[in-house]
């Protein structure tokens, strides 16, 4: 008996040992490093070993990234990862920063809080990165936030929730945590302002029961009084539901003046179709910024016509005029992204672009000292022109955007068009 | 009346069982005397095993009562009846084939010696003591049924004959006052059959009342004090082996079938 | 078959104690203790489940619910009511036990696939509650600011400290569970697994034993949930969804249901596969995962603990 | 700018009211239509269960494959419906055959858990493969007969739903004929009752199992093809459909086709009425609670026979 048990342990130990060796040999694999750095693996291995022994800064600037690149929330992380890797590539192709290469180490959280936590710790303690961008989700961001604070490492989240940069206890932002995306608050404000302008105030909410839908719903309810909105219905559906007719039928019975839907993925298209089927066209329909991809307009097959939604500049680059401040960056990004991945731009990749560009700027001017980077972000990011708006960070504001970051657009003839 | 109660350890009164409109047993009455060996015989489908299942609480009868030592038990669950002192074997062997021979018998002791979940979890001395006690007891029984040397074999590795024996041993472990044996000799060869019947006698000699269902008439005739004959769920005869041998209805019932 | 000698247990204990030291000296794995913390947490649940499934032969595809109950009770009591974490932990186990009793009593009368569906349904319902009762659970965004654990001013605030806390608990539970298995209770459970009619005829109160084990496994899951919450200082519902319940099944099947060691090995392996090793396969992760699973179920019907037996088989030839 | 948009002609005006009656009718219709999708999945579960007593957790993946492969043939390749439809079913059926051959048949000692794990593993694999082929985005399929909803007493139905229900009815009729009239069908049911006896009378049980997998894969494909125009399809849709379908099959009683239909329709209706009248957030919970309660009182589902479920291995 005992012999059997021992042999089990032997087997296990051997297995793990084998895997250890395999990963000790090629640490660059342990984290999908941006294309360019993949070359001369041998040299990199040595570098990596060096860093492991002593935390001396090496020939590269190490930037960590954690996105939900796969799994149920990959609609966020996938474009973010692609964007970040594309950007790192461009920077290095242009000779890097201060002559040093930018080494981007990306881990996949699969939208899982546990993984996000593990990966951030690993980036900080093992890969010795000087700054981290991501995670993609509000949930995962809130999950890793303590780690960043504890280890005094600047973190630029790519998730929406305002809680990420708002410490309930102090009422101020967390010291080491910033974020680039507009908060749901801004999206809601944009929508409510638009509604108010058309004096529509009797509204119905439909939201998906996921983190994205829930936080949007929360803000819609929280801000309703401020804008004199009366919420007559508050309906929900699952992220994999096949039909929302029931919810919409209930809403129809309550005859609101407008419907606001907060979701991502296929459901926001299905809900539109059901809304058309029920002949509710006379009720204006507002989508969240989650709708911000032309793919959705295609999928809706006409049903999206006349739908409003708040979008960041990068989604409507073509509609910008050279006079718009974001015209250049937006056009640039869109061209490059389409060229590299030939797929339509989603609303989310831009968040990673903004985050990494700020990091690059910081590295360029203060090097890879964590504290310096943090201070730089807080003090020197003023009027930074990004994909999702013009950022101005301050000790009281680690998000740096106003609701102008969103432009209300309406779907016309199968494409976005600006709505006054 | 009271005296009758005493000497009848088991009293089956007007028991009827209906499966989906089908009458498996109807108005069945008979008693088992304390310390006797009683056999239930009858052609296949006569309802013998059904009767066993009712007595041992696999399911309650549709009608009637089963009194054990004067108390009615027909409403009790199988494990409660086991606690009361009735134990059984199965026609289709139901050993715990994921255990050793010894463990099988040890489980038989379950009704008598029990350690609580927590006690055994924290390995309190009492649970250790009990475990030891159970082991010794089980070994004794294994020696009694002549399988002391096989205590560590996996149960499913035994030949059929020994599996039957082990089932009897397991049943004994619960120290029953009444033991119900369902075809203990089925599928056994001459010598094994002989062993089985002598074992049954030995058990009975220890004061355990035996109720058995058996097709092998030789066994039935030479070990049982009394015999009940069932046919189509009804008692057609009851009495000593002699009476039954010369009973016309029994012969008829068996014509074409065995015996 | 089930007698477990002192030696392997000692080896197990020693491994637990020296692992952080080893990891510390091999740069490639110096971050493993962190992962081991989660491995330990999952191991707690897996041990309870293997008792339920491997020994009592009952299926549960809903244990993520108890894991979640533990985590949320801990979190709500500490964050919303400022109670002591240990109190929260205890309360969680009590709540889990009560729920398990209420759900288990009727459910465990069900057989095979019906039991699977009932537990599956239970798991999903609880998951929905976590999502919907926003004012209590914080909804899909979850709860942050959950305090860490400390005792008499000694805080389990570093990875190593928490590692020893978790694995200390794991070891205690491990010993407890082995004792149960090797006692009459374990015998009764295996009897139920093997033949219910025979077991009950031998005086085993089947439904009682099933419920006891179900409650025990639920309490372990809850304990694990609390440990998770106080380590991560954050929880959200998606951690406790259907997929985690399935992951637990996989851990047990992979390790081997019929031995408590299977739970230890299975949970450890799956944790490292999904948190560490499979990353080397990048996008192919999912497929490799599925493949490993399928191959094990096909070629190792008794899981990894069955490997030595198979090897012995070869050697004999 | 905006004034171009028709909405502005009559926004604010409280729009045409919908009466409670037609609201309830709408809930019913929605429930039945959604339910018939679940029912179709449940029927797939039952076919395999009836022959093998296995619950195939990869059933949902068949549905997903059906939808996405149809998209490939009909949209990407532009094949006409009449060709794409059978081609899709053929391909998915093949997948079913492979599943049996590669995942189920090789298992030495089948037990409920090993089989559940095996089918789960298979579904993970299939899902992963689909992710590589089609990516993570949802795909659309043109509705078979337009998207103009049909109005019934103030409630509306998508024409596509008639296809779903229609196919469901066809499948059920076809199956009942197949199992009661044809020799193969009878042979399959024989395996269900008693595999050993079946093989004794010379029925090739392995072949029958293979057939059952092929059959239920085909039905899964039909479900996927018909539902995609309604709710789009993406690589990870299968799990949820499998869970709902499993629920329907269990509720109706494993192995019973009328049970599967009833179970599906009940679950669908509870969801839509629950969402409409009580709370849309809890709608799935309502269905599952009802399911559990039913099981507690009737442990083998509505049409399930306890006696039969007793003799089943699992």
Could you explain the architecture of this structure?
Chain B has helices at residues 2-7, 48-55, 78-84, 101-108, 117-121, 125-144, 160-173, 190-205, 217-223, 241-245, 248-254; strands at residues 8-19, 22-33, 37-41, 63-68, 71-72, 86-88, 178-182, 209-213, 226-231, 234-239. With 259 residues, chain B is α/β, with parallel strands linked by helices. In chain B, a hairpin with a 2-residue loop joins β4 (63-68) and β5. In chain B, α4 (101-108) packs across α6, α4 (101-108) packs parallel to α7 (160-173) and α6 crosses α7. The radius of gyration of chain B is 19 Å and the shape is globular. With 317 residues, chain C is mainly alpha-helical. Chain C has one domain (6-244). Helices cover 74% and strands 3% of the residues of chain C. Chain C is built from 14 helices and four strands. In chain C, α2 packs across α12 (260-275) and α7 crosses α8 (184-194). Chain C starts with 5 loop residues before the first helix and ends with a helix. The model of chain C has no long low-confidence stretch (mean pLDDT 91). Helix content of chain D is 71%, strand content 2%. The chains are: A alpha/beta (420), B alpha/beta (259), C mainly alpha (317), D mainly alpha (314). Chains in contact: A-C, A-D, B-C, C-D. The B-C interface holds B 56-58, 77-79, 82-83, 87-88, 90, 94-100, 103, 106-108, 110-111, 113-115, 117, 120-123, 127, 130-131, 134, 154, 170-171, 173-174 and C 1, 176-177, 179-180, 183-188, 190-191, 193-195, 197-206, 212, 216, 258.
